[in-house]
């Protein structure tokens, strides 16, 4: 009954997630299910909206129910405990998220990598390299399953046994583009997930993709634009990231490459220039505390923390990152990865000037 009410509410045209959540703040889901036309009209609903709620698409509801019967198919409602907390923070997050694969992955530490559908060889190499290094560092690679940079990033993460998450601009039963159906299946098979706010049988439409982009950025601590022309849809994702208070990164390219102009514009506007995965990890380490706070179990004891050898190089007063790297003798990317994991585990804190060891009673 509750699931059907959520679906009926989601199917009301022109209501939107913000108004829907306000409605649920003023009444319970059970109360909403019992409302008649007069009750809804008193709340400002128009006749088409009332009709859609009281006379829902029964065929569509049946298709959703059938889709949910398949293994590893899930529906996360706004009030579900597995609804990703970072996305919940964003403006106008979806009421519903359809998930194929591992729903817990939606609350993992994610970095979005996006870019053109027609990358240069250099862009392909940069996307694959960044994705592999981040995935090896325990970061979930999030993208949109599109041709070009998106697909390269998903595949690169899988190549190193990393985790990747794809957000679709169609229903999950209508994979788009069709040629990425095998890639979508591989993502789920290797422990990743496919996500969409659209009902499973929904066909792809141009207006769906900006909505998809806000989910990509909303799930992620930061968005990396690898190659993008000045009018690229990837810049929409970057704009959403800024509106959501997330970090934006851009990979520079040749001044003669039109596919790099969007990235150069982002850098001029304040995006962080990315030359390696370490540049991303260094910037995101202070932001990882929110993800850590959502994990059950709280702070770990010192004996349970990872990378004790690196931890020994961090003092109870601010220790500069360069000094930690020098003391450890490890490559920069590896140090940044371990520092990020230590911060996620609650062993260290990022402070102005570097890191300090977290005190424990």
Radius of gyration: 22 Å
User: How much helix, percentage-wise, in residues?
Assistant: 40-55%
Proportion of strand residues:
5-15%
Global morphology = globular
Number of discrete helical segments = 18
Major β-sheet, in short? 9 strands, mixed
Number of strands: 11
Low-confidence stretches: 290-302
Integer average pLDDT: 89
Structure description:
The chain has 361 residues and is of the alpha/beta class. Helix content is 45%, strand content 13%. It has 18 helices and eleven strands. The strands form two sheets. Strands 1-2-6-5-4-3-7-8-9 form a nine-stranded mixed sheet, with helices on both faces. A two-stranded antiparallel sheet has the order 10-11. α12 links the parallel β7 (222-225) and β8. α14 (277-284) packs parallel to α18. 44% of the residues are buried. The model is unreliable at 290-302 (pLDDT under 50).
């Amino acid at each position: 009954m509750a699931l059907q009410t959520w679906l009926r509410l989601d199917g009301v045209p022109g209501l939107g997630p913000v108004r829907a959540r306000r409605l649920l703040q003023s009444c319970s889901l059970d109360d909403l299910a019992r409302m008649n036309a007069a009750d809804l009209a008193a709340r400002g609903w128009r006749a088409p909206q009332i009709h859609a709620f009281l006379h829902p698409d029964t065929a569509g509801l049946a298709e959703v129910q059938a889709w949910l019967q398949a293994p590893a198919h899930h529906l996360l409602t706004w009030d579900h405990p597995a609804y990703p907390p970072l996305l919940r923070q964003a403006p106008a997050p979806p009421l519903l998220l359809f998930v194929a694969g591992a729903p817990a992955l939606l609350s993992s530490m994610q970095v979005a990598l996006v870019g053109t559908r027609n990358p240069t060889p250099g862009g392909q190499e940069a996307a694959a390299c960044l994705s592999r290094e981040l995935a090896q560092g325990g970061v979930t690679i999030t993208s949109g399953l599109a041709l070009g940079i998106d697909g390269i990033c998903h595949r690169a993460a899988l190549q190193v046994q990393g985790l990747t998450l794809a957000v679709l601009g169609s229903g999950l039963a209508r994979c788009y583009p069709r040629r990425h159906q095998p890639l979508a299946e591989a993502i789920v098979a290797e422990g990743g997930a496919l996500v969409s706010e659209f009902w499973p049988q929904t066909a792809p439409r141009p207006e769906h993709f900006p909505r998809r982009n806000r989910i990509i950025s909303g799930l992620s601590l930061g968005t990396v634009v690898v190659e993008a022309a000045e009018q690229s849809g990837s810049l929409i994702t970057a704009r959403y990231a800024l509106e959501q208070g997330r970090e934006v990164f851009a990979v520079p390219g040749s001044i003669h490459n039109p596919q790099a102009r969007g990235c150069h514009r982002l850098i001029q506007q304040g995006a962080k220039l990315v030359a390696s995965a370490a540049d991303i990890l260094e910037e995101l380490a202070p932001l990882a505390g929110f993800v850590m706070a959502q994990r059950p179990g709280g702070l770990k004891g010192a004996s349970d923390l990872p990378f004790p050898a690196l931890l020994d190089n961090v003092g109870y007063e601010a220790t500069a990152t360069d000094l930690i790297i020098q003391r450890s003798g490890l490559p920069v990317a590896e140090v940044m990865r371990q520092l990020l994991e230590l911060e996620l585990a609650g062993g260290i804190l990022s402070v102005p000037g570097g890191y300090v060891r977290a005190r424990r009673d």
